[in-house]
Amino acid sequence: MIALPRRLRAPLALFALPMLALPVAAQTAPPPKGLTLDRVVVLMRHGVRAPLDGEVPHGTRTAKPWPTWTTPESELTPHGAEALAVEARADRTDWIARGLLTRNCPAPGSIRIWTNSSSRTIASGEAYAKAFAPGCTVPVAHNPPGQVDPLFEPLRARATRFDAQAAVADIDRFTGGMDALVARNRPALRLLDQVLGCGEPRGCDPAGPARLTPSADGHGIDLTGPIRTASGTAQVLLLQYAEGLSPSVGGLPVDGAVLARLGTVHAALFDVYSRSPYMAAHQSAAFGRHMIAALTGKNGAKVDMLVGHDTNVTALAALLGFDLVAPGYATNDAAPGGAILIERWHDARGRAFVTVRYRTQSPDQIRAHAAAVSVKPVRVRGCPADAPCPLDQFVRLFRDRLAPLAG
After folding, report:
1. What digits encode the pLDDT tens for the residues 244-270?
2. Of 38, 91, 94, 272, which shows the fewest CB atoms inside 10 Å?
């Protein structure tokens, strides 16, 4: 068990949750030959939510008004909860087929769910738990609502010895600099102008110069420019499409293919905030230790789930060395309700191994209430390309890539 400092501990002895990756009524992917699944550790993004205040920046111009949401700002929508229910049922079906779970109510302590303290993550965990085992007790735990949780927001919580100057330097190395990042995404930025349809030669997005600087308090980073402003607009277009609202704001019609192209702008935001080696190490520092403990603890839950945000999911993928690739999304644009599944197996001799998968629903599937999910096996950098990774090897490389905790 890897001990977190007392102030960073989330009750690991709580409740764990399931996650899978396939159509609900589809065939289950065959398990690795000769191995038995005995534990799954999950990191999942919350489900479809209403836009955040200012997510579409003030001054963004459109040909027609944005559609009206009936769900309050930033909250999980009923439609989003239904999509999470699909994923929960699919996960349980998969885990029963693989012998991890039975069809009975989960035993107390066998399913642990810990969410961030925002209302949308709490509601996402509850929606998942309710659908995962209807009529059964699957507790969902979290810090008091609104209290910063270092597992999910380590920079705000000052959980690591974060050096903003070092972060900016590493991000610039990783991206080639903010001007280069904008240049690579110029086609998607032009497409966004076509979708917004404002018809102004200067464009529809109110972006200024692209700059990345340490935050004033030195405990974070500040980004300005087209990626900062357009990424939120692109995400809102995806969310309103997935929600089933009118996808058009008067310009180029929006469909799944257009959304995937626009998603490269949202994914570029994570190149800044979570995917460079320095940022991935710090963003993952606390929840990574939680996941290692859940994976290796002697009497751990069969399913241990964390429910957080896109920044968490993209950071973990970057830390482990793989891209988030899923139907309907740009590469490294985290799906609402998407989850990274770390699966522990053992052989007849008791040796332990790990495989990793990424489970999602596409925007079209979420919009249509489709009873299907998709799953993609991924290779962890430093693990075998064509075989499960020995547990001790996986834990060592995972731990070695995490930034030290403060205090």
Report:
1. 999 999 999 999 999 999 999 999 999
2. 38
